[in-house]
Amino acid sequence: MTTPYEKFISAVKEVYALRSAQALLGWDQETMMPAGAGEGRAHALSALSKIVQEKYCTPEMGELSQNLLEDNNLSLAQKSIVSEFKKDRDKLVKIPPTLVEEFAHTTSLAQQVWAEARPKNDKAAFNPWLGKIIDLLRQKAECLGYDGNPYDALLDEYEPGATSGEITVFLNDLKKETVPLLHNIMDSKVKADSSLLFQPFPVSVQKAFNNVILKEMTFSLDTGRLDVSAHPFTEGIWPSDVRITTRFSETDVMSAIMGTIHEAGHGLYEQGFLPEYYGTPMAEAISLGVHESQSRLWENHVGRGEAFWKHYFPEFQALFPTQLGTAGFDTFMLSLNSVQPSLIRVEADEVTYNLHIILRFELERDLFAGNIKVEDIETVWNTKSEELLGITPDCAGNGYMQDVHWSVGLMGYFPTYSIGNMYAAQLFHKVHQEIENLDEEISRRNFHPLREWLRAGIHQHGRMYPAKKLIENATGEAPSATYYIDYLKEKYSRLYKF
Amino acid sequence: MTTPYEKFISAVKEVYALRSAQALLGWDQETMMPAGAGEGRAHALSALSKIVQEKYCTPEMGELSQNLLEDNNLSLAQKSIVSEFKKDRDKLVKIPPTLVEEFAHTTSLAQQVWAEARPKNDKAAFNPWLGKIIDLLRQKAECLGYDGNPYDALLDEYEPGATSGEITVFLNDLKKETVPLLHNIMDSKVKADSSLLFQPFPVSVQKAFNNVILKEMTFSLDTGRLDVSAHPFTEGIWPSDVRITTRFSETDVMSAIMGTIHEAGHGLYEQGFLPEYYGTPMAEAISLGVHESQSRLWENHVGRGEAFWKHYFPEFQALFPTQLGTAGFDTFMLSLNSVQPSLIRVEADEVTYNLHIILRFELERDLFAGNIKVEDIETVWNTKSEELLGITPDCAGNGYMQDVHWSVGLMGYFPTYSIGNMYAAQLFHKVHQEIENLDEEISRRNFHPLREWLRAGIHQHGRMYPAKKLIENATGEAPSATYYIDYLKEKYSRLYKF
Description:
2 domains, 3-stranded mixed sheet, 3% strand
């Protein structure tokens, strides 16, 4: 006799197995696929996506998950699997297939329009598509339902449970502290010179160094890979098949290293789910903010920190004697952490990065609240850029048209980057309290204690707890911007001596 | 209004899109997948395979294809798409899912048993699994139906329309000529010394040379890739995404080159289907024999021929001056084509290769006809080996347990290798008549005329004509062993001077 739960879990595992195939097709498209194979791949992805959607939405799965929610014989983990699956299913059921199709079709075309329009600053070409996407996202929000701002329905896709209200509070706190911090840095007599890291660095030597770091970070190559792609990303095909990418620039040595450390941080999360939950929501990230907390903890708190470089720097210097031979440790650390307001988010440093996010968040929030019209986006963007960063874009391509995100329909996504920063700081603060000699271990290139702590506190829980609860469980208090603000102030006042 | 054909073709294209995903998962497993990811991959493949099976077998597709067969408004190509799809569907419908599942389960385990048993010559471990597989294949043959020998139902899976009767005639002709040919070669005063090609050859130089050949063969890297795997293979993920592999041996320089040329021959077939038929049976190989004819034409008739090496040899020699610096062209050609009976099929030369196939074919045929029992396989194998090759295996691992094929359930598959040889010789003979200066073009490294002829005669037709008809259309006569036998006799009597 098959129990209802057995029936349910076997269907869930089928869905996750099919999603694993989707993930591989996506990864391959960015890393291995020949240039001329795009059309065939689009057919395969769209056929798979249709089937996955159908498998989630069968009436049987609706009934089973509804009934199992009330089944008191289930364990806590089983209950969580049921309720998290049901949550995903409920969302999918609410959006009519015609809207899904129109959204896919529109964003696929809009992305091409954006790619052509951006270098030409062709606002007239891009704006109608942006308007159409915003309109479709409004329809989606209406289907999903929300309290207050329709934007909250979009946020929930990436950061379940987050609201624009609470993100506003957090980002306002951050803004209030970051803007004066940036002024202090700019006014400091200490001037960072990042040109040290922008010289010709042979890629083959870079590769070898990246592989050493990756291995020492304990990213498993038995259950993962590192490849190269145009934009670094992590694809969890299965928790035992986690693929990360980086990119190598001959003239920017930190591009690959920071890409590798960042993505390996994501990768360790995906490799840290518990095997007994593979193929269920319990072996999946709870939110993008939590995912980003892992990548940013490793990239910024570890990879841009003194403890990390204390022992890596001599090796790094020995690998590149012509480029780094005469540089002192302090000069190097300052180069690595140099702060300079710039127009482009993806090139921003740790301090100004959040200002880019605040700009996008406030704009998206007010757009969906009905306070901004599409044709006003550029003006609002430029005003906020001046206010936050002290600079105004020289053109739309370096302003509101710079990111691919909007053209592919990603609105409500940007704030997860800053949420990740906040969570990362709180986690890193806590792990320092719990592992007293953590800096020492890091500077001995022993990342095992840190990885184990993150695994126990975050990774292994999958989607068992909501993001905020997960952070609270791991750190003993509710998420707060304090640790992140303190971290930024302490680090940069030290580096820039004020 | 959607016509029945539009409805049908859209479902066909969905099936082929899903099969494209399956193909990618298979390719990735052999080339890129981390070692520890096998279990997750098995889930994904089995979920996909179940869905593909279901999509073929819906009652609606049965009804649609039946009705469309009688629709006189369809074009010839549309009719062929319907009838070929229906042929595939009819086979799938006949085999009960329980048998499919038991077969997949059994062969998956049997392959592991084989891999462990072979090095230990552990017949007691392997034979029960072999017996079980033969039993399941008998059940499959009963489901599929056959005239005479159940083996014909299995042959039809790989070489549609072929029968054991006609293959017996062909292979008897070949045997009658090959055995004395081999004796003449062995008795010749000319002794080939293949050790010239078994020296240390740096892999990086080999790789560069392989890439040159691949490009000159006109294999498109815009719609294909070359990678490395344990056993070379070709995976057509889509006709615009054809992936071939080779393997590099430091001490056997021809292993990679012949692997590349062979697989590129397969690859050109897959790249040569017509774009308007992508996602249908008209953009698919008609049989394994025809597929193999393409790989073997390139590998043997081109890649082991004088015209090919006339211009490649000086370059090859210059790349490896220490290894090949003093060798003359004739010595090199003799090394490349040296004949020596050996126990292992995959290491066999062009002359003895077919004897290995004849052995397996006769054994499989008689096994399914009920004339041989599982426990007699080794004795029959060893007797035939002595009779055909003049040598008896020293152990089961070098005898009947040498190939992976039986353990994964591939019976009826081996003959397609010799059918491919026969078709290749007939095609190569014909193309020489039609393109008078073909050898000259090949020796100028211009493979375009040959590729175009194969594309026009074979590739572009997909499954439009049955294999034998396709060869007849391309060459003006029904397939016959004559050209292949003449080719072998002419080539080897010239090389071995008798």
